[in-house]
Amino acid sequence: MIRKKIVVLTGAGVSAESGLRTFRDSDGLWEEHRIEDVASPLGWKRNQQLVLDFYNQRRRDVLKAKPNAAHFAIAQLEEKFDVVVVTQNIDNLHERASSTKVIHLHGEIFKSRSTVDYKLIYKCEGDILIGDKCEKGSQLRPFIVWFNEAVPMIEVAAKEVSSAELFIIVGTSLQVYPAAGLINYVHATVPKFLIDPKAPDVSFVRNITCIAKKASEGMSELTDILLKKY
Ligand code: APR
C-alpha cells in the first residue's frame, strides 16, 4: 500500500507545552529581548557575549524540556504515512519524540559553527564561551539562522512541501519569511490543517481546516482521525 506523504510545518507553539517560550505571544521572548540585539549579524558584531548568553539560556531550557503529546502525535503519523517535519524550531524535541525526517529551517541549538567557514559545524551541548574557537581559529557561534541571513534549507523544504498530499501547520504565527511562504507551495487541492489556539489569518488558503486548540490536544485528535481515515 503506498503511504501518503504528510508534511508538518511547526513553530514555537508546538513546543510551548514542553515549557519552551514562544516569540510573539504575550510572554514571548521578543517581549524581553530585541531581535536585532540577539538574533541578527549586527547584534553579533556589536556584542557577541549578549548573543552567546541568549542562546546558552535557550540551550539550557531545551535540555530541561521534554517532547509533549503534540511531538509524539506527529511522530505517530509515521505508522501509516511518509512524514516530513519542517520546523522553524531550534530545539530537538521532534527528534526526541522519534520523528525520523526533520528539516530545521532556522538551525539547531545543539550545534555550533565556525564564523569563517560555515561548513565547520560542531556538536554543542554546553555553553558557547568567548574564546571557544573552530579549528581555523575563529570564534564559534550558535548554528542558528539569524534575521537577514540566508535560510540554506528553504529549497529542500519547498521541494518536500510541493509533493505533500496532506499538510499540517502547528504552532506558528506565519509571520517570518521565507518559512511562512512555504504554504504557497502546497497544491490548492491538498487538504490542509492548522492547529493553533489563536490561529493566524489563513483565509487566503484553499482547503484548510483550522483547529483552534493547543498543539497537544489538537494534534492528538488529528492523528487519531488520520490514522483511522487512511
Ligand atoms: N499550541 C499551539 N500553538 C500555540 C500554543 C500551543 N500551546 N501556544 C502558542 N501557540 C501559537 C501562537 O498562537 C502563535 O501563533 O504558536 C505561535 C507562535 O508564534 P511565534 O511566537 O511567532 O513563533 P514562530 O511562528 O515559531 O516564529 C517563527 O520567528 O523569531 C523567529 O526564528 C524565530 O523560528 C522563529 C520564527
Task: Describe the protein.
The chain has seven helices and nine strands. A six-stranded parallel sheet has the order 3-2-1-7-8-9. Strands 5-4-6 form a three-stranded antiparallel sheet. Helix content is 27%, strand content 18%. The chain has two domains: 1-20 and 65-106 and 151-230, TPP-binding domain (Rossmann fold); 27-64 and 111-144, SIR2/SIRT2 'Small Domain'. It has 230 residues and is of the alpha/beta class. Strand 2 (82-87), helix 5 (93-96) and strand 3 (102-104) form a beta-alpha-beta unit. It binds adenosine-5-diphosphoribose (APR). The site of adenosine-5-diphosphoribose has 23 residues, from loops.
Question: What does the secondary structure layout of this molecule look like, with pairings?
Answer:
Blueprint: E1 5-10, H1 35-38, H2 41-46, H3 48-64, H4 69-76, E2 82-87, H5 93-96, E3 102-104, E4 107-113, E5 121-123, E6 141-144, H6 154-162, E7 166-170, E8 192-195, E9 208-211, H7 215-229
Helix pairs in contact: 4-7
The chain binds adenosine-5-diphosphoribose.
Q: Which features would summarize this protein structure in a list?
A:
6-stranded parallel beta sheet; single chain; about 230 residues; alpha/beta; binds adenosine-5-diphosphoribose; 2 domains; SIR2/SIRT2 'Small Domain'; Rossmann fold; 7 helices
